[in-house]
Design brief:
With 181 residues, the protein is α+β, with helices and mostly antiparallel strands. It contains one helix and eleven strands, in the order βββββββββββα. This is MPZL2 protein.
Length: 181
């Protein structure tokens, strides 16, 4: 029997997909979407680990774990604020974070292991919690166009009213002129 070096066989890997950055409003809820692909069928030993690293780059903090079923962690800043929103059969391992706070700013990582697949990518998404949604160019254009429409409607209405009053005044003058003759 010939021995084939393991390096010649491609290693299976799990690929994980997330957004790179997400902005969300303070006090709202956010679904952190994480999906994956695997060269192997979904295993009973599939596991998902979500971690959080605050902006100050202190150590990673586990916030959620899945192995056959979702497990909420009973300690930490996200205790009672993280719920499972994934569907393993659809390769979706997303979570929801409830009641976002400025202290939630940082990087979330989503890691999926699907034995026998080993290695692969870890999804990273940077969250920025903002006080309110910034006023974008689209909002500015909408307000500008809406205001222009209102001004045009008011101008046309004023012109019609002025024309109607002039016509009535002219008719009155003609009546007075007819009576005097």
């Amino acid at each position: 029997l010939a021995v084939v070096p393991a390096a010649l066989w491609p290693a299976a890997a799990v690929e994980v997909y997330t957004a790179k950055e997400v902005d969300a409003v303070n006090g709202t809820n956010l679904r952190l979407k994480c999906t994956f692909s695997s060269s192997s069928p979904i295993s009973q030993r599939l596991s998902v680990t979500w971690n959080f690293q605050p902006e100050d780059l202190s150590s990673h903090e586990p916030i959620f774990y899945y192995l056959k079923e979702p497990y909420k962690l009973s300690t930490g800043r996200f205790k009672e604020r993280v719920t499972w929103d994934g569907n393993i059969e659809r390769y979706d391992v997303s979570i929801v974070i409830w009641n976002l706070q400025p202290t939630d700013n940082g990087t979330f990582t989503c890691q999926v292991k699907n034995p026998p697949d080993v290695g692969g990518t870890i999804g990273e998404v940077r969250l920025r919690v903002v006080q309110k949604v910034p006023f974008s160019e689209i909002h500015f254009l909408a307000v500008a166009i809406g205001s222009a429409c209102v001004v045009m409607i008011l101008a046309v209405t004023a012109a019609i009213i002025c024309q109607h009053r002039r016509k009535k005044a002219q008719e009155k003058r003609m009546e007075v002129a007819d009576i005097e003759l």
